User: Fold this.
Amino acid sequence: MDYFTGVRRNETLEIGELLKAAKPGQNVRVNGAVHTIRDMGNVAFVILRKREGLIQSVYEKGIADFDLKEIKEASVIEIEGRLEENGKAPGGIEIRMEKLKILSEPSDERLPLAISKWKLNTSLEAKLNYRAIALRNIRERAKFCIQEGLTRAFRDFLYGQGFTEIHTPKIGARGAEGGANIFRLDYFHRPAVLAQSPQFYKQMMVGVFDRVFETAPVFRAEKHNTKRHLNEYTSLDFEMGYIDGFEDIMAMETGYLQYAMELLERDYKKELKILDVALPDVTRIPAVKFSEIKELVSEKYGHQMRNPFDLEPEEELLIGRYAKEEWDSDFVFVTHYPSKKRPFYAMDDPEDRRYTLSFDLLFKGMEITTGGQRIHDYRRLAEKMEARGMSEEGMGDYLDTFRHGMPPHGGLGIGLERLTMKLIGEDNVRETTLFPRDLSRLEP
Amino acid sequence: MDYFTGVRRNETLEIGELLKAAKPGQNVRVNGAVHTIRDMGNVAFVILRKREGLIQSVYEKGIADFDLKEIKEASVIEIEGRLEENGKAPGGIEIRMEKLKILSEPSDERLPLAISKWKLNTSLEAKLNYRAIALRNIRERAKFCIQEGLTRAFRDFLYGQGFTEIHTPKIGARGAEGGANIFRLDYFHRPAVLAQSPQFYKQMMVGVFDRVFETAPVFRAEKHNTKRHLNEYTSLDFEMGYIDGFEDIMAMETGYLQYAMELLERDYKKELKILDVALPDVTRIPAVKFSEIKELVSEKYGHQMRNPFDLEPEEELLIGRYAKEEWDSDFVFVTHYPSKKRPFYAMDDPEDRRYTLSFDLLFKGMEITTGGQRIHDYRRLAEKMEARGMSEEGMGDYLDTFRHGMPPHGGLGIGLERLTMKLIGEDNVRETTLFPRDLSRLEP
Assistant:
């Protein structure tokens, strides 16, 4: 019998420790994956990939007690040697290798992609086919560190605002968003569906915790094969009670974006630099009515409106351009969407019932958030369902929550992959999805 | 056009603000759900439920400018009045109501459950049937605040240990854990499954980020109808590279538990008190071999071993009892599980290949974690698959990752609902699941 008393300290050093705690001239032990080897003849540079970045080690015959040939690209090794300063090496340091320990060897060192190049010069298709290898590229990997920062900021910010984190079921009896884009499965001989959103559950939980959030996968069986659609994505959802109006939700989202940009600036500086990302200014985000911006854009760019009830992707792009040109903002809230295009639970605008107290947030011309105030009064909810010819069947649990009292509330859902994509300047949402699921892609 | 510049300050106060920022005698505005009304004749107490707890408001004719009858249980209201000290009220304060604003009224104030009682004296079945109402009970709600703390601690601790958060797909072409307990669905006319675990993906990502974690739902089509099984649960998963042995994983989990207990003690004191939870001592956690503890328990309690390759629930209970009696610990790592009962990716013990370098963590006699070291060498992985008669078909992406070099690594998965359940002393995992999914329950 043994006892475990907590995290063990490693004898090998991470890059941050090498830079801070270790001193040039000191003997250090470091492990890592062999990212690339540059053999210059009398000396060779072995670049190791570690979680914090790359570190250069130098092989020189006579100093090292092993043969360079023992090191293969894609091997995982541990080295021991003297830490030295070198202004040309990553981080300004390098290790002059003395001893080598092979931790693991590839059975095939010919990688399908040249991951050690600064930019992976290959097709998106190839990157997705060899995903686990492609992501070993430093730039590819950095995208998902940024994504981590965005998720982390969402949670930390909302904890600070009195929100409670919830976990709602992804298998259910019916979808929350309606429409045909729903995955169906057999649940012990009963028909079931995958959640299109946590909408009903997060609303029900506002009656319990006042403010809730969830960061979890959602599933949409959309048959769109575009650069902006995924069939499974991570949704950053929140729902808040006791709002004075749907403006409170946009104000909260603005607060999140401000918090997120600060967190990225502070803790993800390295990755921002690797990807050459300039963070957007989120000091203030303009908000403009759906019908108003449609006209503004139509006037300014001579765009012909085809669909008066929705925004087409090209219109979103023009609105983004307008917001940048007129208000110097990468973000713009488009408010008061037509009731026709919003789900039954959206609260209609009492001043004009053709519109709703709802909004989308566009980032560089693409919708990354849908939100709004919800109906909290049972009678009004029932009326709206009836007017839409909807049945209450199967909605009992949801509706009962409102029968038994609910505060005025609203919320939103942010598509994490789209937010990441726009932030780092990618043009296909698959670039910022670890393992995308689309019409043709179920693997890896 | 308007601008949003960040979170808006509410004019109403939360409980924490009333206790800290406000002064007795001051006029305050507070909103909340009417939890219960106690009408004493000349005076009435209206208890409001807010996210931070309960607050007492006092109604007295002549002071209030409205009729008490205007307030219904389950209404959501905003009140204005004088803050006063009262040692008998929750938090030692109360509000003498002057003005009332009704934010929302229930259409049915007869709640199906008496949520304002301290303990909800009703069956688990009823609590689950009326979940959104049952959770309005202060004790029921507190369970999920504790659960939040456990998840939050997991992430915060691992961020601090250099882990990267990942989001892996829940729809895939095949399961990672094998066996029959897999949900199947149609994915655009292709057969697909729901992820039993993020196992393959998190391993693949060790080759990218060295250390990764995920907190996400997993799906198990188990036909067990027990107090400890769910068909969908939240798995706290991590996977770490560059380990010296599988002990590093247990050490990391011990570190997590220590961090979690500290976080709960610091930030969830109120909820621990509501539920009367005494946090377990996690200074040191004993670890004992599977075969050894089987014998120890058999000797001490005269238990007959039926299955030499696995632990039955009754055996887990006895091991928990043994650990408490002999080592004064609520937790115990059981190590070196038989190879037969572990998946193909588990690393066999080089000293005795009938066993694996794996472990379960038991908490008060129940398995809450399974973990271990994985095979990182492609050839050994292929050999083991062949020995088990497994085909490499459909496993190409997973296996290729190993072909191209992987560090020694291992990890674990913690069942969040079970961990919460054991921590707060519940005996059915549904008690600590927001909306459980089991053989018979697909709603709410």
